[in-house]
Amino acid sequence: MTSKSNRNNYFLIILCFFIIISSILIIDNPSLFDFSSSATPTPTTANSDAITTNVVPNSIISNPLKLSGQIDSSWQSECAFMIEIVDYDNSISYSYPVRVDDGQDCNSATKLNFSTDIKFQVAGQKGAIVILSDNPSGLPENQKKFTIPVSFN
Fold first, then answer.
1. Residue 56 and residue 23 in one domain
2. In terms of DSSP bridges, do strands 145-152 and 59-61 run parallel, antiparallel, or are they unpaired?
3. Angstrom distance (rounded) from CA 71 to CA 115
4. Per the omega criterion (within 30 degrees of 0), is the bond before 43 cis?
5. Shortest CA distance to 129 belongs to which of 101, 113, 152?
6. What residue numbers bound the domain in which 60 lies?
7. What is the pLDDT of residues 27-75, one digit of tens each?
8. Taken in order 33, 37, 41, 43, is the CA torsion positive or negative?
9. Burial of 117 (0-12, 13-18, 19+ CB in 10 A)
10. DSSP H or E segment with residue 19
């Protein structure tokens, strides 16, 4: 009889231990169990062939970030365009103009290389890199935007 009672006591102890550990994990990191897609910005692209970068969608990035790639020449004006880092609620953490690499003819090339170091601070673990075309007119209908959803380390 005591053997069965001891087994029940061990089972209850193990069950309580499991519940306590699970509770600690949920409290310390609720995003572990967040399966909704609403926390990730919706990617919007003007043209999937317009931009290529060394950062793939849904990857984990660290600060500082070395971002490089190619951009369609129609996205730049005077060899520059904008890059933003936004957190999960689209609050801008970093916004800065980026110049294409030296030695390229911005008026005749179809694709332009770029490379930049980005230092950022974000609130939260998810967000996006947003590449914006230079828009001298300021008209919203002329603004092109390429969004890469990411997680922050």
1. no
2. parallel
3. 11
4. no
5. 152
6. 51-152
7. 655 554 444 444 444 433 334 578 889 998 999 999 999 999 999 999 9
8. positive
9. exposed
10. helix 2-28
